[in-house]
Design brief:
Blueprint: H1 2-12, H2 17-33, H3 37-40, E1 49-51, E2 54-56, E3 60-62, H4 73-77, E4 83-89, E5 102-105, E6 110-113, H5 122-131, H6 133-136, E7 141-145, H7 156-167, E8 173-177, H8 192-213, E9 219-223, H9 229-241, E10 246-249, E11 270-273, H10 277-291, E12 297-300, H11 306-314, E13 319-322, H12 324-329, H13 332-341
Parallel strand pairs: 3-4, 3-13, 4-7, 7-8, 8-9, 9-10, 10-12, 12-13
Antiparallel strand pairs: 1-2, 5-6, 6-11
Helix pairs in contact: 7-8, 8-9, 9-10, 11-13
């Protein structure tokens, strides 16, 4: 598949990045419906990992952001992922930031995006999840939730609770995204006062939902790579205090040191891909040192090879997620990472 993708990539890279993204997903859907993906994609690795009461068929997942609305679940599942994370979804539909809002930095194997949580709203996403064969057949599906751009930051907890209530029944786990740089003031939720309020509200709501549905769904927090050690320790301590089940490290970075002077390097938004690898790893190491084995860490950021995925596990992650690496390496990266992580 790498050779086939290498033939397609130059053509795709001639297109606007967002247009290429949408075109690729549309064609993946067609290939999956026509039964073509199974002919070209290597059979998924069987390497089950169990954490937070969930058995993941293999430890390589799709990161949130690639399928924001759950429109491509079955096609993406056919690529061999052990789990998928859909979103970020918000309570109400929103168009996101003005275009252009996605940029390639090919020299660095990187992307910059300022999408701004563009999505059709949580209700539309839930309906699509219910229609997917992957969900109907028990696939592991995380739902990543956020706040609407029009909601004042002081009222953010209301949006997160609303979204959690909407996705609770259909989600294998729920991720609270407070680390995107593309929604104004969102990262302020990583500060102690606001984070304490948010986690307290989510904890209370989850207790009610657990009673209602007879199941306690795992709750993860997704954090930024742009945190200092004190911030990381504070967040780690609050996760334990409020019974949050795990942490996803990390989101995109606002730092530009690794891409200075490159075309598009000064575009606003979050930088992902190879340049964020080290920053993500620093956060994972700091989290692991603080929380030990108390909470699992899902490592994401700069995974461009099986060796990068293995490094995330060696420094403390239990699972990994891919996104930008797929843009540069193609679907075979999933299988490569799964094989690199296969337990003996």
């Amino acid at each position: 598949m790498i050779d086939r993708y290498s033939l397609l990539r130059p053509w795709l890279f001639c297109l606007d990045p967002e247009k290429a993204h949408n075109l690729t997903l549309t064609n993946l859907d067609r290939a999956q419906r026509w039964g073509l993906l199974e002919k070209f994609v290597t059979k998924p690795i069987a390497d089950p990992h169990t954490l937070c009461g969930i058995t993941f068929p293999n430890p390589v997942g799709l990161a949130a952001g690639l399928d924001k609305d759950g429109k491509h679940i079955d096609a993406l599942a056919a690529l061999g992922f052990g789990f998928l994370e859909i979103g970020t979804v918000t309570p109400r539909p929103q168009s996101g930031n003005p275009k252009p809002r996605m940029f390639r930095l090919s020299q660095a194997q990187a992307l910059i995006n300022r999408m701004g949580f563009n999505n059709d709203g949580v209700d539309a996403c839930v309906a699509r999840v219910r229609r997917s064969h992957f969900w109907q057949n028990g696939g592991v599906l995380g739902l990543n939730i956020g706040k609407n751009a029009s909601t004042p930051i002081e009222e953010a907890a209301h949006d997160y609770v609303f979204a959690m209530q909407a996705v609770y029944e259909i989600a294998s786990y729920i991720t609270v995204n407070i680390s995107s740089p593309n929604t104004q003031h969102l990262r302020a939720l990583q500060g102690e006062a606001m984070l304490r309020t948010l986690l307290g509200s989510l904890d209370d709501a989850r207790k009610q939902l657990s009673d209602r549905f007879g199941a306690r769904k795992p709750l993860f927090l997704k954090i930024a790579p742009d945190l200092d050690e004190d911030d990381i320790h504070l967040i780690a301590d609050l996760l334990v205090e409020f019974g949050i089940d795990g942490v996803i490290a990390t989101n995109t970075t606002v730092a530009r040191d690794a891409v200075q002077g490159m075309e598009h390097s000064q575009e606003a938004g979050g930088l992902s891909g190879a340049p964020v690898r080290n920053a993500s790893n620093i956060v994972i190491k700091a989290l692991k040192a603080r929380i030990g084995n108390t909470l699992p860490i899902i490592g994401v950021g700069g995974i461009m090879s099986g060796a990068d995925a293995r490094e995330k596990i060696m420094i403390g992650a239990s699972l990994v997620q891919l996104y930008s690496g797929l843009i540069y390496r193609g679907p075979d990266l999933v299988n490569e990472c799964a094989r690199a992580l296969r337990q003996p």
